[in-house]
Q: What sequence folds into this?
């Protein structure tokens, strides 16, 4: 084990392609039970080319939030017709790129955005498929920074404005209204939250029907299913059955309607680790620090959200001690864990930060003029 992980210069991301395969199979086995259900992997979770192409080959489409992500998906084999495009601030060049490629659908978040898409589509002689992202005003039991479905969040169109925007869209020649889109947040582990979304969607669908709007082809419920950061080996594959069963049980689709999902974290989160090395062990009056060669530049989540990642020393089985594990970056928030238990750790030990497959590599930066991290798979390490 140690020899395999010691083969490459640290820090680097390691993706367990076998676990990714098992995760994708677990998702498919649930969704294949239902006709008209579609999966769009949320690319912002992890855009590593090998990971992307494995997900594409498993039959997923893509959910993109930028022109760069659309380009990356097209380059890695996703057909444009399987790509949906969300985001509160789509730039003109991104809209042009998406129309040129012929993506499946824009998830539109405001009337000003709708007007710009209509104008660009008309100029290009195209028609843009549009779903409206409705803010369902449904809370989620997760970190405040990653709830997106409350009235106070910047995302989506107020549900009170839904009928009006659909009527506006139907007047526009560059626009084809196809459906409704929702996304309530991320790292959600309570199925009640998804159930609350189902009830809200049912309510909105009843309102539409009462207004004579019966041409809603697509319902897109976004993503947000969480993973077990405390115990990655106990729950390597998230509980997809509970998640999809919630929608099957509570969401009332109209005949012929298609249901779309945009999972990100739950697909890739447990499949990635950040592999780093202990540079120094430093004793101060009150603390013992393990200083590693990865920092917030490679894995931002602990600094950004106070997120927890399990830390494993791959080189030591000695009795445990209490350490703070910190990176080399010139910021006090560059801390991976405080007062955590690790086997006696020495310079040169290999350390894994687990559950780092989602929002890890994609959030890496070059702060302090550092290089972006490398990434290897199970095959690269001959594991
Ligand atoms: C981020 C995002 C997702 C994926 O969220 P996860 O929590 O990673 O599943 C899905 N849809 C939209 C619109 C997003 O912005």
A:
């Amino acid at each position: 084990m140690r020899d395999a992980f010691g083969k490459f210069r640290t820090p680097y991301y390691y993706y367990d392609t076998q676990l990714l395969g098992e995760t994708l199979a677990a998702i498919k086995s649930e969704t294949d039970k239902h006709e008209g259900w579609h999966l769009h992997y949320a690319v912002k979770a992890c855009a590593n080319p090998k990971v992307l192409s494995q997900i594409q080959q498993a039959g997923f489409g893509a959910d993109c939030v930028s022109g760069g992500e659309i380009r990356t998906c097209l380059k890695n084999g996703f057909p444009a017709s399987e790509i949906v495009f969300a985001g509160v601030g789509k730039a003109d060049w991104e809209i042009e790129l998406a129309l040129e490629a012929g993506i499946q659908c824009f998830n539109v978040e405001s009337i000003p955005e709708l007007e710009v898409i209509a104008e660009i589509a008309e100029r290009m002689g195209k028609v843009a498929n549009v779903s409206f992202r409705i803010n369902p005003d449904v809370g989620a039991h997760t970190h405040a920074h990653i709830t997106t479905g409350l009235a106070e969040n910047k995302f989506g169109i107020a549900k009170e404005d839904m009928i009006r925007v659909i009527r506006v869209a139907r007047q526009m020649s560059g626009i084809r209204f196809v459906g409704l889109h929702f996304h309530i947040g991320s790292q959600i582990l309570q199925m009640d939250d998804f159930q609350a979304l189902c009830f809200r969607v049912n309510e909105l669908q009843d309102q539409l029907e009462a207004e004579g709007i019966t041409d809603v082809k697509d319902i897109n419920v976004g993503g947000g299913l969480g993973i077990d950061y405390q115990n990655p080996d106990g729950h390597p594959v998230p509980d997809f059955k509970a998640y999809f069963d919630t929608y099957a049980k509570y969401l009332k689709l109209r005949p012929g309607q298609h249901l779309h999902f945009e999972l990100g974290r739950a697909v890739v989160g447990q499949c990635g680790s950040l592999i780093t090395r202990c540079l120094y062990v430093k004793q101060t009056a009150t603390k013992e620090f393990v200083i590693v060669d990865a920092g917030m530049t490679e894995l931002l989540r602990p600094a950004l959200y106070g997120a927890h990642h399990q830390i494993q020393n791959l080189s030591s089985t000695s009795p445990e001690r209490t350490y703070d594990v910190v990176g080399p970056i010139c910021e006090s928030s560059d801390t991976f864990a405080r007062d955590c238990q690790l086997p006696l750790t020495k310079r040169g030990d290999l350390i894994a930060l687990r559950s780092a497959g989602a929002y890890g590599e994609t959030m890496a930066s070059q702060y302090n003029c550092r290089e972006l991290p490398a990434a290897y798979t199970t095959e690269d390490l001959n594991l």
Notes: The chain has a mean pLDDT of 96. The two ends are 8 Å apart (CA to CA). The CA atoms of residues 111 and 168 lie 9 Å apart.
